[in-house]
Amino acid sequence: MKNVTDSFVSLGYWPFAGSFGFNTDILATNPINLTVVLGVLIFFGKGVLSDLLDNRKQRILNTIRNSEELRGGAIEQLEKARARLRKVEMEANEFRVNGYSEIEREKLNLINSTYKTLEQLENYKNETIHFEQQSAINEVRQQVFQQALEGALGTLNSCLNNELHLRTISANIGMFGTMK
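== ATP synthase subunit b, chloroplastic ==
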C-alpha cells in the first residue's frame, strides 16, 4: 500500500491539465516530436512531394527530348552545310580548271592571231616594196624612153629633111590604112 499512497503523493507534484508549458528535457521530448513531425510530413507531404518529383522528372525528360531533337536538327543542318560546301568546292575547282583552260586557250588564240597579223603585215610590206619597185622601174623606163625618144627625135630632126619626112609620114599612113 505504501506504493499506492506514494503514487497519490507523487500525483500531487504533477502540473494541472489546463496548463501549457515547455518540456526542457531534450532526451525525452525531441525524438518523439521529430517522429510525429516526420510522420505528419510523410503522410501529408508524400503526394505533394511525389507530384513535385514527377513534374521535375517530366520537365527533365522533356528537356532531354527537346535537346535530342535540336541535336538531330543541328546534325542534319551540319550535313547539309557540309554537302553544300563540298558542292561549292567542286564548282570552285571546276571554275579554276576551266579558268586555267580558258586562259591557255585565249593565250594560244592571241599568239595565233598575233602571228597572223604579223604575217599579214609582212605580206603588206612585201607588196608595198614590190609596188614601189615596180613604180620605180616604170618611172625609170619612162625616163629612159623619154630620153631615147628625145634623142631619136633630135637625130631624126637633124638627119631628116622635108622630103624624107613626107615619105615617112605617107608610109605610116599607109600602114594605118592596112591595119584597119
